[in-house]
Fold this protein.
Amino acid sequence: MRLHLKLSPNTAPVPFDHLHWLTGVLHKWLGKNEAHDGLSLYSFGWLGGAKPVGEGLQFAGGAEWRVSFVSDDLSDRLRAGIRQDPTVLAGMRVYEIREQITPGFGPAARFLVDGAVLTRQNRDDGGRDHLTYENEAADETLTRTLRTRLDAAGLVDDARQTTARFDRTYDKARTKLVTLKGTRYRASECPVIIEGTPAAVQAAWLLGVGELTGMGLGALK
């Protein structure tokens, strides 16, 4: 299930690197839950409607924010949390929640990304290399992380048949440097193609792709 949240305009500048703030707001609403420290079975996109002003972002017309869960229990907790305390950050508050039932996409679908996608590859020396959409090896890591998340969501048989890859025919693809709590990640703004069972494609739309979906990366539109 996906929730579309409408936020009021900000009353103070929103920092460019505010994704970890949004993560904190989500967990404030969810309360103590298994999603906090474990594998993230949810995703959230970036705030829509921003204009850069000086050292921060301005949302003069408010913002739209999409949050997706494979668990109805977590989405119910989120709505309850919002009703108790609708504040987000920089004076913004949730004033409307709209629920979207997961559409049927069939066995394959191409999704725009709601933010940027992070993929990395382990090195022999223990480090990790960032793989962007320009590197075809990124598809293997996208597929692997998605299958792991589908497994955790209970779609074990569906996971084995599922693949994820960047759409490299998209001529507006680019990379973006994303900062999370002082650490910088090179992520990709490029559509993603998911192929598998219809149930797996639906779940991927909710779970997002790549790493750190629980911190605002990898959400799909």
Remarks:
- The chain has a mean pLDDT of 94.
